[in-house]
Specification:
195 residues, mainly alpha, 10 helices
Length: 195
Amino acid sequence: MPATRAYHHGDLRRVIISAALEVIRSDGVAAISLRDLARRAEVSHAAPAHHFKDKAGLLTAIATEGFELLAAALTTVPAGTAHRLREMGARYVEFALSHPAHFEVMFQPHLLHGDDPELTAAKERTSRALHSGVEDLPAARRGPDVRRAGLAAWSLAHGFATLQISGSLPPLDDDPAETFRALVDDHPVAKESGH
């Protein structure tokens, strides 16, 4: 084996994840191959398996990173912010549009190691962040079931982001996050009078 194919990267894990994200953006998650990623990184074909074990391990690492980034984006909207839940939804849309490869992987549990503790923790942080926005709503706005209100809010942001990414929406005059804000202003879960 040529010397150039040895472990010469300072952070091979990051190199492989970055290459995988590029492949997902251009060709979709089905195009991921650890052997191809090794070739792109100019390392032995066994090197990615050393870090991720298998394709599901790589996709789990990508999903974990995605949930961590999403939780960070949601928590940038401080408690007490006017229309906090709406702003969190807009951040959700912005995250999805700026990280489409992560977004594609995060919500396909059949591709992931669902019992991975880092993935579980990242998903829980994201869920707590979203639920904190729902819990901030006045009781009259969220209704008696906080869980159901959270599901409605998540579905609204996730659905809009998915439609935008897939090209299913008509061309928008505004930034998609601005369009999302305008769409949810009259939605009973998202509208926050008195904040």
